[in-house]
Amino acid sequence: MTLARAWPGGEDRVMGEHANVDWSGLEILSAEDCRAHLAAGAVGRIGFVEEGGPVILPVNYTMDGHAVVFRTAAGSKLSMGMMQRPVCFEVDDWDTVAHTGWSVLAKGVADEVLDDAEIARLEQLPVRPWSRPDLRDHWVRIMVEELTGRRIGPAD
User: Fold this and answer.
1) What is the pLDDT along the chain (156 residues), one digit of tens a residue?
2) Residue 21 resides in a domain
3) Structural domain tally of the chain?
4) What is the CATH number of the domain that holds 54?
5) Close Cβ partners of 90 (under 8 Å, ≥ 6 residues apart)
6) Is residue 57 part of a domain?
7) pTM
């Protein structure tokens, strides 16, 4: 797993005592902070290319180690997962009044989970489809290969 840096030239820049920031002044979240935000989330957005165009869909999910997992029915999300194509997965939280918030982007490859023992184990995780759980009996796993995040705080 890598943590990309956005500062020109690739170096980290320190502001204050602890904060690394990117070229626009956004705090660069550590890999640990990114994983914590992913683990605490319940709904994220999966992005992929389907038939030559971008698609972004909300899914409720949970983490399984460093992998994002969710259930789906047959359709675009499932076919995308079966094809072992690159995807991105994003979670965020914002306070539009205070102009604060954070965003985490995970990139990796999605695949359908087919092993019966693995499916039985995943069924024990704390994620249930919000809509039509009777149809959402396929598991998709995103193996996270790159993880980045940013946070914006109140203006000085």
Assistant:
1) 333 433 333 444 333 445 698 888 899 999 999 999 999 999 999 999 888 889 899 999 999 999 999 998 877 677 766 678 899 999 999 999 999 999 999 999 999 999 999 999 999 998 887 777 777 888 999 999 999 999 998 765
2) yes
3) 1
4) 2.30.110.10
5) 44, 45, 47, 103, 104, 105, 106
6) yes
7) 0.81
Please check whether residue 100 lies inside any domain of the structure: yes
Range of the domain at 61: 13-152
Beta bridge partners of 143: 67, 109
CA distances (Å), 74 to each of 64, 78, 79, 81, 84, in order? 22, 6, 7, 10, 15
Distances (CA, A) of 88 to 68, 124, 147: 11, 25, 10
55's tokens: 């698609």
Sequence-ordered list of residues with C-beta below 8 angstroms from that of 80, at least 6 positions apart, any chain: 48, 50, 55, 87, 110
